[in-house]
Amino acid sequence: MNKLLTLVVSITLLFSVKGYGQEVPDFYPPSIVPDRIVLSLTQYPTREIGVNWRTSAEVTGSYVEFAKADPSPNFPDGVKSTPGHFTGLHTEFDSSHHHEVILKELSSSTQYMYRVGDSTELGWSEWSHFSTAKNDGGFSFLYLGDAQNDLKSMWSRAIRGAYSTRPDADFIFHAGDLVDKADSDAEWGDWFYAGGWIHSSVPTLACTGNHEYARRSDGSYNLSSFWGPTFAFPTNGPKGLDETTYYIDYQNTRFISLNTQAFLIDPTAAERQTRWLKSTLKNHEQKWTIVLMHHPIYSAKSGRDNMQMREAFLPLFEKHHVDLVLQGHDHTYARGTSTPMSKGQNVLDGPMFVVSVSGPKMYDLSLEDWMTRGASDVQLYQELDVGPTSIAFKAYLVTGELYDAFELHKMNDGRKIYVDQTPEDQPELLGIPEALRQKFTSQDWKKYKERFAAYKERKKNN
Ligand SMILES: [Fe+2]
Prior knowledge:
By secondary structure, the protein is α+β, with helices and mostly antiparallel strands. The chain has helices spanning 2-14, 151-165, 185-195, 227-230, 260-265, 267-282, 307-319, 434-439, 442-461, and strands spanning 16-19, 22-25, 35-40, 49-56, 63-68, 80-83, 85-90, 95-103, 111-117, 128-131, 139-144, 171-174, 204-206, 213-215, 221-223, 246-250, 253-257, 288-292, 324-327, 333-336, 347-348, 352-355, 371-376, 380-386, 390-397, 402-410, 416-420, 429-430. It has two domains: 35-131, Immunoglobulin-like (Sandwich); 139-461, Purple Acid Phosphatase, chain A, domain 2 (4-Layer Sandwich). The chain has nine helices and 28 strands. Helix 2 (151-165) runs parallel beside helix 3 (185-195) and helix 6 (267-282) runs parallel beside helix 7 (307-319). It binds fe (ii) ion.
């Protein structure tokens, strides 16, 4: 009996690590069976898709088998096999192999089935479906703000709610801070647990946040070692910013992903990114331009301001008629414009800015002039429908209620007709999160009440 107890304790210790101040068991040990399977959009979404997955380090084969999806289990069109490569990671628990295959020469607007593995009998995943992008006719996508904390416990309902609302969405965009500790295998395990097979069925698009950066033991501060091996995003950005700063032309829309953390910590990356942004905004003829970035141009949380970044990016956004900027970081919901909107205003000159949050970390709102509608102390997800001449935006509370909505219709001069569709029966939710209530000093309360009163007054007049 004592021997058995010793064995149990030894195994428990073996699979536990001192992780960030507490004992974290390895809930998701890698095995020879692929897990953490995720699809990424590449630069050519009508004819390519990126496939990544994880195995234990003993697996050295990286293959994707795929065929045009067919209801017959005999796959009458035949199965093709494409090899890839893997990257080894030494995590806080063990070593794992992270495999990547880019499927190329696919047909647009086509449903495929695929599985990943090492080509041996036991090493295959289940078969899943995905669809390549359509050439035209419109598309839809889901947008999730920071997930970051309590990913399994509290973010699961956000990603699953979003998928349940729009299971036909063409892809899911994550606005950075997917995890809290950039190199924590435990947290990436939770991110994949929450999304499960959604990650392997609906392509992902993501930009990096500050929490995708980690301080290493040698003092360096770098992008998460998980980012490159986990995703297969484009490498068409400036030097040194592969898979974090990139563009994708999806039907009639140019998506531009910026790496705001690199901008803020590295003057060379800031300069390169600004120069690249200028040419990327200028050299395209897509109808719509949507910028994806973590730190917002206008902060939604009190006491924050990314002035240096705003001074670099905003004039370019305005000059080149960026339509929408989808952001995160401030753990609140807010949307609005550079020049505060007036009541009944139906034309927009510049971009519509949105900040959102999908995880459970909650902050208080800045309630600044740029904001047209806000929310605090709630988790949300958003769906966007992009058509030939309009974009329809809807924000939902994770409990499924529509919270905010608007449409943009592009005019020939680059400006947009704006249609407010805020649900009339949904009042603004401007609660102070419980964790902040505990910390607020009387001075904090005073400031918040002043901001709140000024915001309400402005709303009344506008
Ligand atoms: Fe952040």
